[in-house]
């Protein structure tokens, strides 16, 4: 039941970005970000995001959420 619900939730959202998170020199993970609310940004995102050092998931989530607001005009 959990998987069915997750699949329905995911399909209702629009894919915002897919690419790779480089966690260190050996570990790179495939990642997909979904658009859930507010205005979708039209700019292109890099295919790779490199994470240096230890990062708490909550802090990384906040960073990703603030990216569209920090872009240069």
UniProtKB/TrEMBL annotation:
Query: Which GO MF terms are attached to this record?
Result: translation elongation factor activity
Q: Give UniProt keywords alphabetically.
A: Elongation factor, Protein biosynthesis
Ranges for domain Spen paralogue and orthologue SPOC C-terminal: 9-71
* InterPro entries noted in UniProt: SPOC_C
Question: What is the protein name for this chain?
Answer: SPOC domain/transcription elongation factor S-II
């Amino acid at each position: 039941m959990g998987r069915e619900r997750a699949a329905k939730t995911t399909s209702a959202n629009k894919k915002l970005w897919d690419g790779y998170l480089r966690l260190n020199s050996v570990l790179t993970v495939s990642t997909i970000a979904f658009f859930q609310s507010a205005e979708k940004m039209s700019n292109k995102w890099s295919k790779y995001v490199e994470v240096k050092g230890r990062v708490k998931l909550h802090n990384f989530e906040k960073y990703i959420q603030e990216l569209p607001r920090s872009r240069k005009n």
